[in-house]
Amino acid sequence: MTTAIVGTQQGICLTVHVVPNAKQTLIALERDGSLTMRVHAAPDKGKANREIVKFLSKKLGIPSSKIQILAGVRSNVKTMEIIGMNEGNFLDALCGEDKVI
Question: Does residue 69 contact residue 80 with C-beta atoms inside 8 Å?
Answer without folding.
Answer: yes
